[in-house]
């Protein structure tokens, strides 16, 4: 069987890929463990693993560890990474290889779901990325902002009187500190995502024509909560990166 794995900054996300379907979704925080140990534990749970398709934002040292481990265990590893042009996506970043591989793979996933559409891909993880893709599969650029957890963390780590934030009681008329920070984080991020989508859309219309339609896709750990509170319409695809990884299966 094949496994697709997305090694993010805080969490491992994985799914089994067989018969063109994804199943057995997992999202496991690293907590205080090295990411490689977390990955090894997951792999041990699949003794009949034949192929591992993996994307990582964890750098060169992590990549070497994974390559070494897979070689030692006889696991066929496919390392999905940003490139100038692959899987139907043309990467127009100034330095194409410096684009986060998770962003590239998410764009590949969007291209698979909406092959002939302009797309905006919003990935809501530790960081939030908002990326634009033309109907021809050209990645035209995007932005990076802090993710939901970081909005609150940045305040609680820098302001003495701010010590906690709660995201589960959102109100713009919050009546205690934790609720005020949590609500500010949530509605602030929702507003930021909406504003960025609208700016990108108007730029796409200026460049490619006023009559184009643009699909907005939302993925990542906080996709549901952002979709729930946004007034814009999104295609909710929480596993877009894992879906994008399946396109690397034959490579
Ligand atoms: N099981 C969970 N427990 C707590 N928070 C979660 C959980 N799953 C997702 N989240 C939320 O998801 C966000 C992290 O997103 P996600 O899991 O997509 O990526 P990540 O591994 O943290 O980061 P990256 O963007 O680098 O992939 C956090 O802000 C958190 O609020
Ligand atoms: C932006 C993140 C952290 C999102 O996971 C990741 O894609 C990354 O580390 N990117 C490298 C820098 C870039 O994409 O420009
Ligand atoms: K991610």
From TrEMBL:
Keyword Mitochondrion carried by entry: no
Subunit relationships: Homodimer.
The protein's enzyme class: transferase
Residues that, per the record, bind ATP: 6-13, 126
Pathway stated in the Swiss-Prot or TrEMBL entry: Cofactor biosynthesis; coenzyme A biosynthesis; CoA from (R)-pantothenate: step 1/5
Binding site for substrate: 93, 100-103, 177
Phylogenetic classification of the source organism: Bacteria, Pseudomonadati, Pseudomonadota, Gammaproteobacteria, Thiotrichales
Major subcellular site: cytoplasm
Organism in which the protein naturally occurs: Leucothrix pacifica
Protein name as catalogued: Type III pantothenate kinase
């Amino acid at each position: 069987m094949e496994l697709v794995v997305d090694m993010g900054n805080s969490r491992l996300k994985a799914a089994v890929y067989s018969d063109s379907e994804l199943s057995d979704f997992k999202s496991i925080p690293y907590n205080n463990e090295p990411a490689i140990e977390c990955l090894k534990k997951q792999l041990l749970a699949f003794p009949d693993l034949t192929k591992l398709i993996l994307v990582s934002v964890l750098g060169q040292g992590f990549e070497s560890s994974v390559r070494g481990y897979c070689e030692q265990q006889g696991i066929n590893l496919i390392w999905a990474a940003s490139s100038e042009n692959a899987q139907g996506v043309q990467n127009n970043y100034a330095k194409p290889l410096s684009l986060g591989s998770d962003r590239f793979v998410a764009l590949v996933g969007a291209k698979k779901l909406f092959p002939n559409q302009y797309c905006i891909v919003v990935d809501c993880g530790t960081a939030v990325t908002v990326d634009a893709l033309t109907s021809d599969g050209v990645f035209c650029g995007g932005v990076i902002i802090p993710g939901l957890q970081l909005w609150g963390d940045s305040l609680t780590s820098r302001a003495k009187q701010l010590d906690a934030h709660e995201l589960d009681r959102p109100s713009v008329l919050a009546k205690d500190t934790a609720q005020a920070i949590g609500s500010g984080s949530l509605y602030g991020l929702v507003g930021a995502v909406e504003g960025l989508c609208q700016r990108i859309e108007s730029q796409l219309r200026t460049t490619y024509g006023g009559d184009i339609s643009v699909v907005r896709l939302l993925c990542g750990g906080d996709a549901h909560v952002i979709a729930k509170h946004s007034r814009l319409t999104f295609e909710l695809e929480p596993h877009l990166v894992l879906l994008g990884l399946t396109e690397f299966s034959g490579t």
